[in-house]
């Protein structure tokens, strides 16, 4: 049994998240805030941002930031939030 997520897992879950969000509001172009904390491998962050962008979503990338900072950005941008690239709010 393996631990963690492979790059393919990250892509699959990101695509699923974006599809779900688009189904909730199919008319509007989706905006995501993709926050990064010190625990995330930069490759994972790059994959998430690339997949969302490739699916036509607007991605706001605040860089290294806290959960609270990301939640404020989500509220201000009226966006969907991805924090630590694993938690969707």
Q: What is shown here, in short?
A:
The protein has 89 residues and is α/β, with parallel strands linked by helices.
Describe this protein's structure:
The chain has 89 residues and is of the alpha/beta class. The protein has one domain. The protein contains three helices and four strands; from the N terminus they run H-E-H-E-H-E-E. Strands 2-1-3-4 form a four-stranded mixed β-sheet, with helices on both faces. Strand 1, helix 2 and strand 2 form a beta-alpha-beta unit. The termini are far apart.
Distance between the termini: 29 Å
- Main sheet properties: 4 strands, mixed
Low-confidence stretches: 84-89
The gross shape turns out to be globular
How many strands appear in the DSSP assignment? 4
Mean pLDDT: 79
How much helicity do the residues have? Answer: 40-55%
The domain tally reads 1
Features:
89 residues, alpha/beta, 4-stranded mixed beta sheet, globular
Layout of secondary structure:
Layout (H helix, E strand, L loop, with lengths): L6 H18 L6 E5 L6 H13 L3 E3 L6 H11 L2 E4 L3 E2 L1
Parallel strand pairs: 1-2, 1-3
Antiparallel strand pairs: 3-4
């Amino acid at each position: 049994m393996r631990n963690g997520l492979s790059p393919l897992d990250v892509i699959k879950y990101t695509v699923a998240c974006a599809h779900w969000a688009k189904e909730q509001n199919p008319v509007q172009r989706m905006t995501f805030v993709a926050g990064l904390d010190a625990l995330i491998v930069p490759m994972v962050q790059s994959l998430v941002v690339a997949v969302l962008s490739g699916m036509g979503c607007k991605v706001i990338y605040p860089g290294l930031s806290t959960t609270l900072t990301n939640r404020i950005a989500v509220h201000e941008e009226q966006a969907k939030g991805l924090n630590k690239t694993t938690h969707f709010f």
